[in-house]
């Protein structure tokens, strides 16, 4: 399994991309910032200036149904915010 799992494409990330040239990725939990930087540079052929990471823990969720209470947990994941050099762009939709 690779270091980069998938890009995060939401309204908030799109605004960050337009304002500050920051892209978000869901990455492997054991990956460090140096590995993430190398993986993004190799995959998208861009120059990475900065990498910020955040670990999200899974949350407990429950809902009430006719069959009773259903309990579960959301998955834990690690998110990386990648800042690119000026003029660099990542196009997520070019491979479709």
Give an overview in words.
The protein is of the alpha+beta class and 96 residues long. The protein has helices at residues 11-20, 33-44; strands at 4-8, 22-27, 48-56, 60-65, 68-73, 77-84. The chain has a four-stranded antiparallel beta sheet.
Task: Find the count of extended strands (DSSP E, 2+ residues).
Answer: 6
Corresponding CATH architecture = 2-Layer Sandwich
Beta-strand level of the residues, as a percent range?
Answer: 35-45%
Summarize the helix and strand pattern as letters. EHEHEEEE
CATH superfamily: RRM (RNA recognition motif) domain
Average per-residue pLDDT, rounded, comes to 94
Distance between the termini: 21 Å
Cα radius of gyration in angstroms: 16 Å
Share in helix: 10-25%
Break the fold down into its secondary structure elements and pairings.
Blueprint: E1 4-8, H1 11-20, E2 22-27, H2 33-44, E3 48-56, E4 60-65, E5 68-73, E6 77-84
Considering the chains and any ligands shown, give keywords for the structure.
alpha+beta; 4-stranded antiparallel sheet; 2 helices; 96 residues; 23% helix; Alpha-Beta Plaits; two-stranded antiparallel ribbon
Briefly summarize what is shown:
The chain has about 100 residues and is of the alpha+beta class. Helices cover about 25% and strands about 40% of the residues. The mean pLDDT is about 95.
